[in-house]
Amino acid sequence: MRTITLNPKQQREVEILTRLAAGAVDSVTAAALLGVGARQVRRQLARFRQEGFAVVIHGNRGRSPANRTAAGVCERILALAGPGGRYHDLNICHLQELLEEEERVVIGRSTLDRLLKQAGVRQKAKRAGPVHRRRRLRRAAEGMLLQIDGSPFAWLEERGPEADLIGAIDDASGRILFLLFRPSEDQVGYLLLLRSIALSHGLPMSLYHDRHTILRSPKQPTLEEQLAGQSPMSQIQRVMAELGIESIPAYSPQAKGRLERLWGTLQDRLTKELRLADITTLEAANAFLPGFIARYNARFAKAPQDPQSAWVPLPADLDLPYYFAIRTTRKVRADHCISFAGRCYQLLPDPHTSSLVNQWITVHRVPEGDLYLYHGKRRIACQAFVAPPVAPPQPASAASPPVAPVVHQSTARQRAWLFGQT
Questions:
Q1: 156, 200, 299, 383: which could form a disulfide with 160 (CB 3.0–4.6 Å)?
Q2: SS3 breakdown of the chain: % helix, strand, coil, rounded to 5?
Q3: What is the CATH number of domain 146-221+231-300?
């Protein structure tokens, strides 16, 4: 039996051809997913039905290239261009010309360059210098663009644990809108950031952030997601999308320079003020932040060009736990229960729905840890089962008399009938 090894790209092609052969997708969709024409798809499908998985493997796999440079020629070139060789100090273009004219060795310039670099005879080219960047102007109005990030630092120095400071700054005014100390840069911190800003100011038009996996999913879309026109999203990325906030990823720290400069200022000023206040815990440090933010904004914030802000106010009836929460899906069992985080939750009767058995619901966990269950956008009442406390076993005492077993009334009547007792 022949063993065929497929790489991820080939496995994806096999899956698409399998679905095409089974009628799950049409030829037009398969052609778009494979990046070929409709006629080529028909050819591949015909070969796939005859040859199976081997159709996605290139025919030249395992063969030596026809234009491969002979081993003896490579050794000769390395001897001529290596240390002590006749052409040891020639550049690549000059070396290629003399090899062809003087040594009758014909070789391509890129092939020669790759050969010498792989052998260590020539050094790789130095990296290009820094790119010339232009200063980006501030946005005109507050709420148009917010820069968010987390900064790991010894904020409490040696007096307390290291922490991440999660913050947001308005691009138009340079005003700090949110700061929070967390043990690490996590989803809860960014959820609190989004919810706090939404409640105090409203929804911003866009958020500028780095490419952290908390803020932007690194996963590649599955075939089902491609067919549905969807792309993988992180939890925070989903919250931004559902609230209509544009997510703008930065490709370098310099791109969000205002926030990076803010971290430098805070690591100087805030660290020293925390030391002067003799703060040693994250709880006390978070309680210190509101006063510090007010003083900082009064000192450094600037008036925006447009006094009319771009904040979008939250609707009065917005269900906060539906949006500002970490979501997980669960399937309802036959007894209308679900399991989550090692606990069992009973779904209470709902007048709008007779049964949710075998249906998927979402568990929304807010930053405070409370759980809310939803079927679509409708909240479902539930009740958690609390296991009764288990009493520790008591050691048996030799002097204590044996305890008679408890006989229930029904058991006593049954025994009287069996043994003829009255």
A1: 156
A2: 40, 15, 45
A3: 3.30.420.10
